[in-house]
Amino acid sequence: MSPDKLIHMANQIAAFFRSKPHAEGVAGVADHINKFWEPRMRAQLFELVDGGNTGFDSLVIEARPNMTPVTVAAPSSP
Predict the structure, then answer these.
(1) What are the Cα distances from residue 26, in Å, to 2, 5, 32, 77?
(2) Domain boundaries of the chain, sorted by first residue
(3) Quick one: how far is CA 21 from the chain centroid?
(4) 39, 76 in Cβ contact below 8 A?
(5) Are 56 and 33 in contact, with CB atoms under 8 Å apart?
(6) Do residues 68 and 34 touch, judged by C-beta distance below 8 A?
(7) What is the pLDDT of residues 18-59, one digit of tens each?
(8) Can you give the C-alpha Rg of the chain in angstroms?
């Protein structure tokens, strides 16, 4: 997925949770991404956030430590 699309999607989730109290919003972003994003999307999100990409809403950045780590297996060879 393109980085811009992934950032946009994460920021939309953050915008939804922005109306909640701050701690609840941070937890809500992490919970939503943990439950509904496939491992490859989360892995890409982690790479972008951990790499210092500045396009993310602050709630996404703050939620990052509460997101479940993933290991994306390399494709098996024939």
Answers:
(1) 24, 21, 10, 40
(2) 3-66
(3) 19
(4) no
(5) no
(6) yes
(7) 999 999 999 999 999 999 999 999 999 999 999 987 899 999
(8) 13
